[in-house]
Design a protein that fits this description.
By secondary structure, this protein is α+β, with helices and mostly antiparallel strands. It is 36% helix and 8% strand. Strand 4 and strand 5 form a beta hairpin.
Length: 225
């Protein structure tokens, strides 16, 4: 995740505790079947879905050779890419910015926005769909919704949670300490229009938690009330 959003990036040397700083300019691609992006990686990848619409995709026949064609037309393709980039940098006032994407402001301005001006779709719009299919986010959303259903917005201790809420927080039944630890990690998490908040308590006093409903970003006030 760091390598995809930071430059330079600190990495740990295998087998050592050293953390050298290295430039991060590589293009990373991941392929596979049934891949699901989870947590913060959802906003760091642009997904491409290929559906051959056949049980045996490996048996298809293709004309031509993609690698040979790319190599043959390399100068033409590079010229097109660099022309689009140069046009975008020279005509920034003509570009209509797409959806915001934190940590990728430069990429959006230099790469995404010129392509949007030429009629391409905004890849950032797919992020919400990707997050919607994230199994971890779905599990947290189910937990938060059950919490609101059984406890509303009332402050409550972890030990007093409804049985269904405890089951969703601890599906493997690892015990009260795991539930308390998970709620601590989820404090401040906002998903499905809900946010888990933890009350400030005195030392050694059991914490209480409350589920608060929040406004969507486009409906939230721009300034504090």
């Amino acid at each position: 995740a760091s390598a995809l959003a930071e430059n330079p990036v600190k990495v740990r040397v295998l087998g050592l505790s050293k953390m050298p700083t290295v430039p991060s300019t590589a293009f990373l691609a991941v392929t596979g079947n049934g891949i699901a992006l989870s947590e913060d990686l959802a906003r760091r990848f642009i997904t491409v879905e290929l559906d051959a619409r056949t049980e045996d995709p490996e048996a298809r026949r293709f004309t031509g050779n993609l690698m040979v064609e790319v190599a043959t037309r390399r100068a033409e393709l590079l010229a097109a890419v660099l022309t689009i980039f140069r046009w975008g940098r020279q005509n920034t006032t003509m570009l209509t910015g797409g959806l915001p994407l934190g940590s990728y402001e430069t990429w959006c301005a230099w790469v995404r926005d010129p392509l949007l001006a030429l009629g391409c779709a905004d890849p950032v719009a797919r992020i919400s769909r990707t997050k919607g299919t994230d199994p971890d986010r779905q599990a947290i959303a189910e937990l938060f919704q059950a919490w609101e259903q059984h406890h509303g917005s009332a402050p409550i201790k972890a030990s007093a949670l409804h049985e269904e809420v405890r089951r969703l927080a601890d599906p493997l039944g690892r015990g009260p300490q795991f539930v308390a630890s998970r709620l601590e990690r989820l404090t401040g998490t906002q998903i499905a229009g809900l946010r888990l908040e933890r009350s400030k308590t005195a030392k050694w006093t059991p914490a209480t938690y409350a589920m608060v409903r929040v406004l969507p970003l486009n409906e939230a006030p721009s300034t504090p009330p």
